[in-house]
Queue: 2 jobs
Job 1
Amino acid sequence: MSREEPTVPEQPTPAEPVTRDVPPLLDVDGLSVRQAGGGELLHGVSFTLAPGERLGLIGESGSGKSLTALAVLGLLPAGLSAHGSVLLAGTQIVGARDRRLDRVRGRTVSAVFQEPLTALDPLMRIGRQLAGPIRRRRGLRGGALRAAVSTALDEVRLSARVAGAYPHEISGGQRQRAALAMALACEPDLLIADEPTTALDVTVQAEVLALLNGLVSGRSMALLLIGHDLAVVAGVTDRLAVLERGSLVESGRAEDIVRAPRHPYTRALVESAEAFEAEFDRLAP
Ligand SMILES: Nc1ncnc2c1ncn2[C@@H]1O[C@H](COP(=O)(O)OP(=O)(O)OP(=O)(O)O)[C@@H](O)[C@H]1O
């Protein structure tokens, strides 16, 4: 939804961020993503995120959630270009060169993705991988660095033994915890989590999500949580933004959207989440 031209005219102004008097940490304004051939995949998306706020970005597969995240990180794949404005802690990401992006990534913002192996080096033990960002961010060495690695593992409920393991030697849930520890080791102001639990077993999903929730709120870190499951995302976020085929169709307080969705697409997402819950209750012993 562009600020000049709301897609849903009857909709009231979307809920304001929780914190009104501080500038947004992330200000996405009229963000479009285009293919080299000219086709547009994301159409003028706008939203803001205040420091410490949690925003859920939801929508079906292919609605543009990951492209939004990648554009915010300045990580769009070759052949795709971003247009509009993405201000992250005052730095313009659209059109920025790598040097400027390097200053922002891993300091202001870091990310976890659906597949933790993308973030982990298969040839390096977990402890060494974790030590890299901690050393860079906090300047620790030797025993102090080893202690900080242990603490970082402990925070994501991994035993110190995991430090000596290679990524293929631990489970998918443990790998996602390790990837989360790496993202948090940078002490970013904003964590972007793109479907962080989708590839995990249902029971492990709940554990990792609860962990993510606790760690983000404990650090007053802002969170952009991307997912297709409205019930899951709404449970962890203050506000929701709903994407449909590359356009933002609704945004507001998570509880308001779940209770009274305005846009037909959002209504369908809420109804399908409710139908799933009802089926789950019916099947549960
Ligand atoms: N590199 C690319 N080149 C061309 N089209 C792309 C590229 N990456 C994504 N797309 C297209 O852009 C649209 C949005 O993709 P995106 O990955 O953002 O969706 P998504 O909402 O994250 O979906 P999912 O939940 O399946 O990850 C889709 O139609 C997808 O096919």
Note: Residues 35, 41, 59, 61-67, 77, 79-80, 228 surround adenosine-5'-triphosphate (CB under 6 Å).
Job 2
Amino acid sequence: MYRKPVVIGVAGGSGSGKTSVTKAIYDSFKSQSILMIEQDYYYKDQSHLPMEQRLKTNYDHPLAFDNDLLIKHIQKLLQHEPVEKPVYDYSIHTRSNEVIYVEPKDVIILEGILILEDERLRDLMDIKLYVDTDADLRIIRRLLRDIKERGRSMDSVIEQYVNVVRPMHNQFIEPTKRYADVVIPEGGHNHVAIDLMVTKIQTILEQKSFL
Ligand SMILES: Nc1ncnc2c1ncn2[C@@H]1O[C@H](COP(=O)(O)OP(=O)(O)O)[C@@H](O)[C@H]1O
Ligand SMILES: Nc1ccn([C@@H]2O[C@H](COP(=O)(O)O)[C@@H](O)[C@H]2O)c(=O)n1
């Protein structure tokens, strides 16, 4: 006998605060059974490509992601089977050799810029969130984070933002807001929205029937 997991999707532009929101929800459930899956970890494997080729990839386009593998993994977790989640290394623009063994849990949070773009992923979700933060704040946050944590230079972050991130955001990410059940302004420090989400997830968990 087991309970069907609750699946929550958290989308939003790069630097909007998706990871912060996801972590805040995760931390509220620590005593319970919860796991996070980052769509970034499911960027297509590029280990067969030379570095100069990897630098040219458009990482903000839906085709950059291996959603088939992500969906396969979610379906396994929904059937209470474990999966081996890939690990992504931003400094080499491909997956690392590691994998993380992930056990099924009662709550699964899926987080990523384009997590609401694929209808097959949306169909697996019980709740869809979109973290909505103005573009000026997003680029400032991204600049600081990518230099500190992702091994990038200021020039490369700005060049990528202007030529790729911004146009792809407007074409593919922002339009997915219409699929969201809840839009969370400003991201990780919106404690009211996070508390409301935690309460809602708890209610769904209690309502889910045992199979
Ligand atoms: N509300 C906020 N105010 C200030 N900084 C924030 C806020 N939310 C997130 N950040 C910071 O901005 C950066 C990007 O946030 P993150 O949650 O990683 O965004 P995303 O996952 O959407 O790219 C991180 O360094 C994070 O600490
Ligand atoms: N090799 C890569 C892979 C992805 N990116 C950028 O990451 C952004 C998504 O991550 P967030 O945590 O910011 O949501 C996305 O906008 C890609 O441009 C990258 O720079 N290099």
Note: Residues 7-199 form a domain with the Rossmann fold fold (CATH 3.40.50.300).
